Amino acid sequence: MGSGDRQRARIMIAVKTYPELSARYHETSCVAGIRLDQGTPQHVRLFPVPFRLLNEESQFAKYSIVEVDVQRHHGDRRPESLRPNLQTLKVIERLGTADGWRERFSHVQPLMAPSLCSIKRDQELRGTSLGVFRPAEFTGFRFAPAERWPASKAALQISWIYSHRTSANWSGCRLSSGTASVARIRSAVVTTWV
């Protein structure tokens, strides 16, 4: 696919990142998935995706199959990166967990690398940045709360909230003029759109 060529892609969504504030995109997430329409499954990254701002019928869950028009992301050299045309996004189905996640795993399994070292070698050789492997041992899980947004990013969100407040259901949520804390802003956004 050339840099200006658009294609219709069928993708199983595997990862959605925590929303990030952006002067250019307001709020966006990076979405990773597995492209299913090219014969052999391929890792893909979709960016930008302002997930919480999508129409309700376009909001997808992990392990959903979506169809969307995509083109190479000219600002990103990673071979998996695609820019989606979100006006064309259609959620087709959500894959279930029956039979030990058999249906989901059938798309992931062909992409499994033998080790993290193998993924890193591929990164050095081809510039890839996505991969999947099965660890030999699971030793634990660490959960940490998200860091607060810095004041500069919070100001972006306040500005965007004020400019779009009439179209959202604020359900009594008030932001004090210019002095709302970052935590309060995050709470308002999460309460409003999630």
Short overview:
By secondary structure, the chain is an alpha+beta fold.
Descriptive report:
- Helix 3 (151-164) packs across helix 4 (182-193).
- The chain has a five-stranded mixed barrel. Strands 7-8 form a two-stranded parallel sheet.
- Strand 5 (64-72) and strand 6 form a beta hairpin.
- It has four helices and eight strands.
- The protein folds into two domains: 7-133, OB fold (Dihydrolipoamide Acetyltransferase, E2P), CATH 2.40.50; 151-193, no CATH class.
- Mean pLDDT is 80; it is low at 165-194.
- The protein is an alpha+beta fold and 194 residues long.
- It has helices spanning 98-108, 116-126, 151-164, 182-193, and strands at 7-16, 20-22, 26-35, 42-49, 64-72, 81-94, 112-113, 132-133.
Features:
194 residues; alpha+beta; OB fold (Dihydrolipoamide Acetyltransferase, E2P); 2 domains; 4 helices; globular
CATH architecture of the largest domain: Beta Barrel
CATH topology of the largest domain, by name, is OB fold (Dihydrolipoamide Acetyltransferase, E2P)
The total of beta strands comes to 8
| Biggest sheet overview | 5 strands, mixed, barrel
Query: Quick check: average pLDDT?
Result: 80
Strand content: 25-35%
CATH first level of the largest domain: Mainly Beta
Q: Which word captures the global form?
A: globular
Number of helices: 4
Share of helix, binned? 10-25%
- Number of individual domains: 2
Q: Please mark out the parts with pLDDT under 50 across 5 or more consecutive residues, or reply none.
A: 165-194
Q: Output the strand order for the largest sheet.
A: 1-3-4-6-5
Secondary-structure content class: alpha+beta
Q: Round the Cα radius of gyration to an integer and report it.
A: 19 Å
Helix-strand string: EEEEEEHEHEHH
Q: Please report the distance between the alpha carbons of the first and last residues.
A: 35 Å
